[in-house]
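Handout, section B. The chain below has 149 residues.
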Amino acid sequence: MNTRLLAMIVSTLSLSALAACNKAEAPADTASDVAEARQEANEDVADARKDAANEMGSAAADMRESAQDVEETRIEGDHKVALEKCESLAGDAQKACKDSADATYESAKARLKTQMSNSDASGTAAAQRTGSRFGAAGATGVTVCRTSN
């Protein structure tokens, strides 16, 4: 009999505990919990946006630096090519050709420096525009060497 009574007490207590889990909160408590949950959610979203912005800013800076490195390397390559083409000339023509190649090189470096310092956060569009201008400048330096033949 004790076992039966004990089982009844345990099941009654279990049902009472389960009934308490589904009990509705007071409206004021619910409103407070909802407000707190909203506040936490808003803070989490703000933190996530801040983190994303920081990551995007870092990526943009890395891309800008990489674009600048590529352009500097291309400018140096154009300069080396122009100087090698000058080697086929002699005397004053060779000196004029090298002077022109050097001037084009310095001009291209100065334009890159200016554009990189004035570029927006992404910097990639400016680097692409810079590349097309330097290509023209490099070609001009080579053309001057050919015409001074």
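Note. Residues 121-149 have pLDDT under 50 and may be disordered. Compare this with the example in section A.
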